[in-house]
Amino acid sequence: METAVLNSTTVKKSNFKSEEYFINMGPQHPATHGVLRLLLTIDGEIIKKVEPDLGYIHRSIEKMSESNSYQQIVHLTDRLDYLSSHINNEAVCLCVENALELEVPERVKVIRTILGELTRIASHTLWWGVMGMDVGALTTYFYGFRDREMINDIFEETCGARLTMNYNIPGGLMQDIHPNFVKRVKEFIPHFRSKLPEYDRLLTGNIIFQKRTKGVGVLSREDAINFGASGPVARASGYSCDVRKYHPYSALDKVNFTEALDTAGDSFARYKVRIAEMWESLNIIEQLIDNIPEGDFKVATNAVIKLPKGDFYQKVETARGEFGVYIISTGNKNPYRVKFRSPGLSNLSLLNHIAVGGKIGDLVATMATIDIVVPDIDR
Amino acid sequence: MNSISNIIDWFINTGVLNMALIALIYLTVFALLGLFLVLLERKVAAWFQLRIGPNRVGYLGLFQTIADALKLVSKELTGTVKADKFLYNLAPYFVIVTSLMALAVFPFTKDLQAFDINIGIFFLIAISSIGVIGILLGGWSSNNKFALIGAMRSGVQTVSYELSVGLSLLTMVILTGSLQLSEIIEVQKSGWLIVQGHIPAIIAFMIYMIAGTAETNRAPFDMVEAESELGAGYHTEYSGMKFAYFFLAEFINMFIIAAIATTIFFGGWLSPFGITESLPWMGLFWFLVKTFVLVFLMMWFRWTFPRLRVDQLLTLEWKYLLPINLVNLVLMAVIVWLNLTIQI
Amino acid sequence: MNNEALQQTILSWFPDPEFPQPQFTEEGSQFLNLSTEPEQLHELMHLLKNNPETHFDYLFCLTGVDYGKELGVVYHLESTVHRHIMVVKVQTADRENPILDSVQDLWATANFHEREVFDFFGIKFKNHPNLKRLFLTDEWEGYPLRKDYVDETNMVVK
C-alpha cells in the first residue's frame, strides 16, 4: 500500500516540472543587517517577488512617546536609526524649539551641524564597509571601521557616548563641547581626505564590484518620487531632495555645499552618491569648525515643557534620507501623538520594485545600497 | 602463534604495512598542514585588514587553530530532522578523502613521493572533480534551501571550471610530453616550464590560477558559500567535526591547487638556477616555498576582491577562459612543433 | 505657490456649494491644512497630485491619528516641482469599522504606510491590494496606538 502511494508520487514528480519556491531571508541572515525578514519567491536564482516581513524589533516608540515628556522623547529617537542618532535627536529638539518659538544660540546651531555631519560620515563609512562585505569583499569592513573609530572617539569625548549620543536637548545641548573637540575634528578632516581615495582604490575601481553594481536595481526618478524615496537612494535617481538644501535647519543655511546627485539610479550610482556625500560633509565641517561662535550652549527652558496646541512637523536629512517628526500637541506636557517618518520604511518599500528579475546576488547588492537600518523601519 | 606471525609477515612482505604507515603519516602531516593553512589565512587576512589576528593561544597564536579544531571535535553534531541521514553523513568524507587522495602523487623531493603513477596529472584532475559530489550531496541531503542553492551553484561552477583547469594543464603536457609528475619535473631541469613555454605557458598559468581558485570555491568565486547571500551555502546545516572536514578540505584543496601549479609551472622541488642541487633534501624547502607563495596569492585574491555573481562566473568561464584556453592550446602546439621553446 | 494661491486653486475645483467644501486652516501649524470628508478624499487627492498647478507628487508622511471620538489620517504632501507643502486631513467617526479610500494607486509609498496605519489604528483602506498587519503579528488583537487600547501586562499607564 505504502509503496503504491510512493510510486504514484514519484511518477508525478519525475516529469521535471520547474516550480518557483519560497525562501526565508532573515530574520537572522548576514545580508539583512539586523532582523529584517524577506520572503523571497525565487525561480532558480531569479527573484520573482520580495516581500518584507517587518516588526521583529518593533518597540512602539510612538506609543511610548505619548506618555513621555518632550525631553524624554529625544532619548527614544536614538534608538530609531542608531547610526544617525544625533540627527534624530536634533529633529525632535528642532520641532520642540520651533513650537515654543525658542531661538537657540548660534553656537548651538553650529555645533549641532558639525556633529550632524560627523554622524553622516560615520554612518556612511559603516555603510561602505558593509557594502563591500555584502558583495564579498570582506576587507572593506575594517577600513570603514578604522575611520569611523576616529569619529566615535570624538563623540565619546564630547557627548560621553559613541553611538546613542543624547547630546541634544530642547533648547540647546546637554553640555559644552570638550576642549579637544576642535583640535580632533581638525585632525580628522585631513586624515579622512587622505583615506577616501583609498576607498576608491580598494572597491570603487574594482571591475568585479562595478560589474556587480552597475545596472543592478535600477530606480527611475518617477518611481523614486512615487515610492517616497529620500536621501542617497532618491538622489542617485536624479531626484534632488536634500532637506539640507530645501529646508535648511540649524547652521546649514550658512554653508556652501553641493548636493550629490546622479542620474543612473542603479546600485553603483547610489554608491557614488554616498561617497560624494562624505566629501561634501567634510567640506561643511571645514567651513564651520573654525567659526564656532562663542556663547551659551543652551537656553533655559521650563523643566516641564508644554507645547502650544497644534501640529508641528520638522524634517531633517539623516544619513539615510528624510527623517520627519510630527508632533500633535494638545497643550499638555505629553504629546498627543508623535509620528516618526522614517526614511527606511519608504526606501524599503521600493525594494520589491527594483529587485524583481535580478539574481539573489543582485538583491543583496541592492539592499546594501538602499542602506536600511531595521530599528528605524520598525520603530 | 604461528598464524599471527604469518599474518605479520604477509603484511610486511606485501607492503600493506608500509602503505598503512605512509597513509598515516600523510594523514597526520596534512591534517596539521590544513590547520596551519587556516592560521596562515587568518594571519594574512588580519594583515590585509589592519588587524593583528590570532595572538593569544601559544606563541603568536600558533596554536589557535589547534584549539579551534579541539573545540570542533568536542562539539555536538546537530543536523536537520528531515535530512537524508546517510548521504548527510557521507558527504564530508567524500570531500576530505578526495582532497587527501590527491596529495599522494606529489613529488615533494626527488625521493619523497608516495605514489608515482604515469598518469599523474590525469589522476589529479579526476580526483579533484570527485570532491564536488560531496558538496552536492551535502547541500542536497541537508534539506535546507540555502544549502541546496549553494550545492547547485557548486555543481555548475565545478563542471565549468574543471574544463579550464584540465585544458590549461593539457597545454603544459604538450610541452612535457608526459603525464607523470616525476618526469615533468625532470623535463624542467632545462628550465621551468613557465620559462620554457614562455607566452602560452604564462597564459596557461594565469588561466590555471583563476580556474583553480574557482575550483576550490574561494573568493572571488565563493558563490557556493557566499555568506552574505546564502548564510553558509552547502554546509549551512553541518556542525562540529563534519563542518571541520569541509573547512579543512577547502584549505587542503587550496594547497593542492598551488602544489599542482608549482609542479607544472615552477619546477616543483627544483631549486632556482640549481643553487642547491647538491642538497637533495632542500627540494622540500623549495617546493614548499613555491607552493606557499601561490597560496599567498590565492589568499590575496580572497581578501581584496568582491564576489562575482553566478551568471558572471559562467560568462567568465564559457565566454572568455575557455576560448582563450583553446587558442592557447593550439599556440603551444605550434610552438612545440616549431621548436620555439626556451631551453637554458 | 504660496498658501493663499493654493487655497484659491483648490477651492476653484469645487464650485458646487451643495458639495462639501474642503476646510482650510493654518492655525497651529506651519503648513496649509486642508480637511476633507472621506467620500471626497480620493478625488481630491487625485486632483492634488495630477493638477499641474498643485502637482503634489511626493507623499512624505502618512500618519494615523486617534482623535478620541474620530479616527483620522494625516497626509503630508510635497511638490517636487513647485516645492510647496500641504497637509490633508481626513477623519471618520466610525470606530468599529472605519473605512477610508486608499491612495496607494496615486503614491506607491502609501502601500506600506497605510498598512502601518491599519496595523496600529485599524483603519481599513478600500482598494488596498495587500492590507494586512505590517509590524504586529496577524493574531494580534486590537489596535495598539488607539487611545482606548488597553494591555495590562505590557503597558505602563501613568
Automatic annotation (TrEMBL), chain A:
Molecular-function GO term, any one: NADH dehydrogenase (quinone) (non-electrogenic) activity
InterPro entries per the UniProt record, alphabetical: NADH_Q_OxRdtase_suD, NDH1_su_D/H, NiFe-Hase_large
Annotated family: Belongs to the complex I 49 kDa subunit family.
Domain of life: Bacteria
Binding partners and assembly: NDH-1 is composed of 14 different subunits. Subunits NuoB, C, D, E, F, and G constitute the peripheral sector of the complex.
A Pfam cross-reference name: Complex1_49kDa
Gene Ontology cellular component list: plasma membrane
HAMAP family linked: NDH1_NuoD (MF_01358)
Domain NADH-quinone oxidoreductase subunit D: 134-302
Enzyme class per UniProt: translocase
Source species of the chain: Salinimicrobium sediminis
Protein's gene: nuoD
EC numbers on record: 7.1.1.-
Subcellular location field: Cell membrane
Function: NDH-1 shuttles electrons from NADH, via FMN and iron-sulfur (Fe-S) centers, to quinones in the respiratory chain. The immediate electron acceptor for the enzyme in this species is believed to be a menaquinone. Couples the redox reaction to proton translocation (for every two electrons transferred, four hydrogen ions are translocated across the cytoplasmic membrane), and thus conserves the redox energy in a proton gradient.
Keywords: Cell membrane, Membrane, NAD, Quinone, Translocase, Transport
Membrane-topology descriptor: Peripheral membrane protein
Protein's recorded name: NADH-quinone oxidoreductase subunit D
Catalytic reactions on record: a quinone + NADH + 5 H(+)(in) = a quinol + NAD(+) + 4 H(+)(out)
TrEMBL record, chain B:
Keywords, alphabetical: Cell membrane, Membrane, NAD, Quinone, Translocase, Transmembrane, Transmembrane helix, Ubiquinone
Organism taxonomic ancestry: Bacteria, Pseudomonadati, Bacteroidota, Flavobacteriia, Flavobacteriales
Entry keyword annotation includes Acyltransferase: no
GO aspect biological process, one term: aerobic respiration
Database matches in Pfam families: NADHdh
EC number: 7.1.1.-
Job description of the protein: NDH-1 shuttles electrons from NADH, via FMN and iron-sulfur (Fe-S) centers, to quinones in the respiratory chain. The immediate electron acceptor for the enzyme in this species is believed to be ubiquinone. Couples the redox reaction to proton translocation (for every two electrons transferred, four hydrogen ions are translocated across the cytoplasmic membrane), and thus conserves the redox energy in a proton gradient. This subunit may bind ubiquinone.
Subunit structure: NDH-1 is composed of 14 different subunits. Subunits NuoA, H, J, K, L, M, N constitute the membrane sector of the complex.
Stretches that traverse the bilayer: 20-40, 90-109, 121-140, 160-179, 191-211, 243-267, 279-300, 320-340
Main location: membrane
Location relative to the cell: Cell membrane; Membrane
Any one annotated GO CC term: plasma membrane
GO molecular function, one term: NADH dehydrogenase activity
UniProt record similarity statement: Belongs to the complex I subunit 1 family.
Broad enzyme group: translocase
Reaction equation(s) it catalyzes: a quinone + NADH + 5 H(+)(in) = a quinol + NAD(+) + 4 H(+)(out)
UniProt keyword Membrane, yes or no: yes
This protein's name: NADH-quinone oxidoreductase subunit H
Membrane topology reported for the UniProt record: Multi-pass membrane protein
UniProtKB/TrEMBL annotation, chain C:
Record-annotated NADH:ubiquinone oxidoreductase 30kDa subunit domain positions: 35-150
Any one GO MF annotation of this record: NADH dehydrogenase (ubiquinone) activity
Organism domain of life: Bacteria
Alphabetized UniProt keyword annotations: Transport
InterPro entries, alphabetized: NADH_DH_suC, NADH_quin_OxRdtase_su_C/D-like, NADH_UbQ_OxRdtase_30kDa_su
Coiled coil keyword on record: no
PANTHER family listed in its UniProt record: NADH DEHYDROGENASE [UBIQUINONE] IRON-SULFUR PROTEIN 3, MITOCHONDRIAL (PTHR10884:SF14), NADH DEHYDROGENASE UBIQUINONE IRON-SULFUR PROTEIN 3 (PTHR10884)
Assigned protein family: Belongs to the complex I 30 kDa subunit family.
Record-given protein name: NADH-quinone oxidoreductase subunit C
Lineage: Bacteria, Pseudomonadati, Bacteroidota, Flavobacteriia, Flavobacteriales
